[in-house]
Design brief:
The chain has 479 residues and is α+β, with helices and mostly antiparallel strands. Among the domains are: 89 residues, Pdz3 Domain (Roll); 174 residues, 2-enoyl-CoA Hydratase, Chain A, domain 1. The chain contains 12 helices and 23 strands. Helix 1 crosses helix 2 and helix 8 packs parallel to helix 9. The termini are far apart. About 15% of the residues have low confidence.
């Protein structure tokens, strides 16, 4: 490799890193007092982008300001020696590729690939955003986009489904959180980058794609056909389960989620004549979203204290979020449903409500995504998405790679009501010539078995039963 190229690359690297060359020839990087390009929060709302990595929760300014912390006197900046041997190796590899690779490669592509490699080697959530990816992040907040409707990440070289989005082709096709996509239209996923796999799954609405998946409950691969469609995301759904008992489903945390949830709860109160005895908050298969929304949802039920805090190396990555004095349920019992598809912002809410003993958490262990990503613009068209901190629950628990363990473990189940009367115990109605309760009972002889809540959603039915028990217990304690 020509020495001129190596020297030029080393000089370029040194300039890029802000390095200086003192007498003696040792390159050193002096930590600046402020970054040349300030780290800024992500766009106001982090979108759910179908068939893309789950865009994590960036750190905007706190909704509720943290208490000021006593600053620690900073020592003089410590000069860090740059690894000259490794930089020479980089320059050597760069030169070899330029000279010997079977096809000519442009410098721009090589350098962009090097940047992507650096970030990909850190963790699954740090990445380089080129012009198209950065544009999607900025404009994808409308809640409408094309695709299959899944949040995905990488797991041992395969694409892992973090969660299917409600009312999307992916959910209707039966894709589940935890499924591993091993083939896309018969092409192996192993060896592809996540972005390459994502681009393969994108396409024109109405076109069909075949995914080969591995599921932990099945011993062989499953082929699933999914038709691409325009994805419309409504982050909040609600209904009355039984008189006095409400249900709110949060499918994703968007900028308006807190406001929409409060509106839904007020509507449930009116529907139940202002006697909402309890609420089930469903966070199953909710992959996260905007941090402020998670803080706002938690704050809606917690009247005081810490909701979540972040810890990182830089001072601006150390934030605290605290609750205000109101509770939209006025202390009524709350049950939260979670599962392995509940990630990031969902885990912040579940962890805060659990630590404050404000809600009973039911379901299965959550995903365990407890890191904070910050969007750092490089120029007008590109940016870095880099992990800058970790989330911690009010009691100091780290969510990262741990998740939230429910108070009551409840695996998904299938409820099948028996239609054979002889299998049950003998009752008065089974006796010959038994007395009827009246005409109303005689008229209800259709023989139709209505689909119960337990048959529709076993976990939700159990959550409702638990909510009823908490309500009865609360009345007993209150006299």
């Amino acid at each position: 490799m020509p020495k001129r190229l190596s020297l030029a690359l080393l000089i370029w690297i040194g300039i890029t890193l802000g390095a200086v060359a003192p007498p003696g020839g040792t390159l050193a990087q002096e930590q600046p007092s402020a970054p040349a390009v300030p780290s800024v929060p992500a766009v106001p709302e982090t979108p759910v982008v179908p068939e893309t990595p789950a865009i994590p929760d960036a750190v905007p300014a706190p909704v509720i300001p943290a208490e000021p912390q006593t600053p620690v006197a900073s020592a003089a900046p410590v000069a860090e020696e740059l690894p000259l041997d490794e930089l020479r190796t980089f320059a050597e590899v760069y030169g070899r590729i330029k000279d010997d690779y079977v096809e000519g490669v442009k410098d721009k592509k090589l350098l962009e690939s090097a940047i992507r490699g650096m970030l990909a080697g850190l963790d699954p959530h740090s990445s380089y955003l080129d012009k198209e990816e950065y544009r999607e992040l900025q404009v994808g907040t409308s809640g409408e986009f094309g695709g299959l409707g899944i949040e995905v990440g990488m797991d041992d070289g395969f694409v892992k489904i973090i969660a299917p989005i409600d009312d999307t082709p992916a959910q209707r096709a039966g894709l589940q959180a935890g499924d591993l996509i091993v083939r896309i239209d018969d092409k192996p996923v192993k060896g592809l980058s996540l972005n390459e796999a994502v681009n393969m799954m994108r396409g024109k609405p109405g076109t069909e794609i075949r995914l080969t998946i591995m599921r932990s409950t099945d011993g062989r691969p499953l082929d699933v056909k999914v038709e691409r469609d325009i994805i419309h995301v409504a982050s909040v759904k609600s209904r009355t389960l039984e008189p006095g008992f409400g249900y709110v489903r949060l499918s994703h945390f968007q900028a308006r989620t807190t406001e929409d949830m409060r509106t839904a709860i007020e509507a449930l109160k009116k529907e139940n004549k202002d006697e909402l005895k309890g609420l089930v908050l469903d966070l199953r298969n909710n992959p996260g979203g905007v941090l402020n929304a998670a803080v706002g949802v938690s704050d809606a039920f917690i009247v005081d204290g810490l909701i979540v805090y972040t810890q990182g190396r830089q001072a601006d990555s150390k934030l605290q979020f605290k609750a205000g004095p109101d509770d939209v349920l006025a202390g009524a019992p709350l049950v939260v449903l979670v599962n392995g598809g509940s990630a990031s912002a969902s885990e912040i809410v579940a962890g805060a409500l659990q630590d404050h003993r404000r809600a009973l958490i039911m379901g299965t262990q959550t995903f365990g995504k407890g890191s904070v990503q910050t969007i750092v613009p490089i120029d007008d068209t590109t940016a870095l998405k880099i992990t800058t901190a970790r989330y911690y629950t009010p009691s100091g628990r780290s969510i990262q790679a741990e998740g939230i363990n429910p108070d009551v473990t409840l695996d998904p189940g299938v409820f099948k009501p028996s239609s054979e009367r002889e299998q049950g115990p003998l009752k008065e109605s089974d006796l010959v010539r038994h007395l009827d309760e009246g005409k109303a009972a005689a008229d209800d002889k259709s023989g139709e078995v209505k689909k119960t809540l337990a048959a529709e959603d076993f976990q939700l039915a159990e959550a409702l039963n638990m909510l009823k028990g908490l309500t009865i217990l609360g009345r007993a304690k209150g006299g």
